[in-house]
From TrEMBL:
Chain segments annotated as coiled-coil in the UniProt record: none
Residue intervals of the Peptidase C51 domain: 115-245
Source taxon at top rank: Bacteria
Protein name: CHAP domain-containing protein
Keyword Chaperone appears in the UniProt entry: no
Residue ranges crossing the lipid bilayer per the database entry: 21-39
Alphabetical UniProt keywords: Membrane, Transmembrane, Transmembrane helix
Length: 245
């Protein structure tokens, strides 16, 4: 659940995939050209509902900047360029995956997606491993990253290792103890919050606070599948808060 690599190094030498994609999108805005729409998922998925040019034309903007931002986002592994989304969009995407199981060798589409992204090289290098080692590895955080990339959730972060992902949220000032819908929830099932970030062993999304000391979640790599669960808040280390609107 925590990810294959265990060597910590908290400072990447380059910007994150999300930062690079956001930068290109901001450049398009400054040029007076933005057209975020519903574009193709990763290769092999269904056709677009609207082309970048059509989206830009509908908004009275140039399609060139929109195409550039979209192309860069897709190269990084996003389905659409990062932007502020509603928490309900993330929850809906996560729920749509409930029932997805591991295949042969413990593989899922979340593994295949993650290793296809340039960010996988950065995290593997950081943690002292190889990209190939992600195949068949614990995938709860790859699932969280995949969901964020599918909806273009700004401020979701991106990792395969729960401890590093939680550390990123904390260093970004997006860390807390309130179970908000859509928050990324990090667990230490033995020690909870007292175990600290270094003790994190699992991650998922908060669907709702049940108001009785439990939360309803959607998680990957739970019994080798994506499942909805009810968890005790006492098992939670903390929550990461994406930039929802």
């Amino acid at each position: 659940m925590t990810g294959r690599f265990d060597r910590l190094s908290l400072n990447l030498k380059s910007l994150t995939a999300e930062d690079r994609a956001v930068g290109v999108a901001v450049g398009a805005v400054l040029a007076g050209a933005i057209g975020l729409s519903v574009f193709n998922p990763l290769p092999g998925a269904s056709a677009t509902a609207e082309t970048p040019a059509q989206a830009a034309a509908a908004q009275g903007t140039s399609s060139e900047g929109a195409v550039s931002a979209t192309a860069e986002a897709r190269r990084e592994g996003f389905r659409v360029a990062p932007h502020r989304v509603k928490a309900s969009e993330v929850i809906k995407m996560a729920e749509s995956q409930i029932g997805v199981h591991e295949g042969a060798g413990g593989m899922t589409k979340y593994h295949r997606w993650y290793v296809s992204t340039p960010h996988a090289k950065a995290t593997a290098s950081r943690d002292g491993g190889r990209v190939a080692e992600y195949n068949g590895a614990s995938w709860c955080n790859m699932f969280v990253s995949w969901v964020g990339a599918q909806v273009g959730a700004q401020g979701m972060g991106w990792d395969a290792y729960t401890v590093q992902h939680a550390t990123w949220f904390k260093k970004s000032g997006k860390w807390g103890t309130t179970p908000k819908p859509g928050a990324v929830v990090f667990f230490d099932f033995k020690d909870g919050r007292s175990g600290g970030i270094s003790g994190i062993e699992h991650v998922g999304f908060v669907k709702k606070d049940n108001g009785d000391g439990t939360i309803t979640t959607v998680e990957g790599n739970t019994g080798n599948a994506v499942k909805e669960k009810v968890r005790k808040e006492s098992q939670v280390v903390g929550y990461g808060y994406p930039d929802y609107r």
